[in-house]
Target: VapC45 PIN like domain-containing protein
Amino acid sequence: MKLLLDENVPRPMADIVRILLKAHDILHVHDLPGWAGTKDIELFEKARAEGFDAVLTNDTKQMSRHLEVAAIAASGLHRIEYRQNNKHGGLVGLGSAIATVCAGLPHALAELSVADGQRLVSLTSVDPTRATRVRTVDPQVDAPKFWPTG
Model:
């Protein structure tokens, strides 16, 4: 499958997705000369004309804009979105976005490869909050099995 990563997808995401999904042709808008800055309305038609099968974006407002929805529908391309939680910036935000895409994209691409028409896919976010990502144990209070006592 030939997948285009939209301009709003962080560029480091493209390198990671390429490493993990070697069987697919993964390109970021910035990899294509003259494509940076292309408005979404033109991007989907341009991507279709260049043989892409799907576009990955984190522009969740795109589906609430009439002209963009019409352009997506007319292109026939699959649209894959993930949400990047704005309250988690920096490394935590990027890590959450990468985790969400890496965990969900292989399943999405497998489904899309056998789809009999255009599909709209939303990848479920990985929760980056400390309480859900980190567990800390004090071995003096809650000793693991075989922890030396003494």
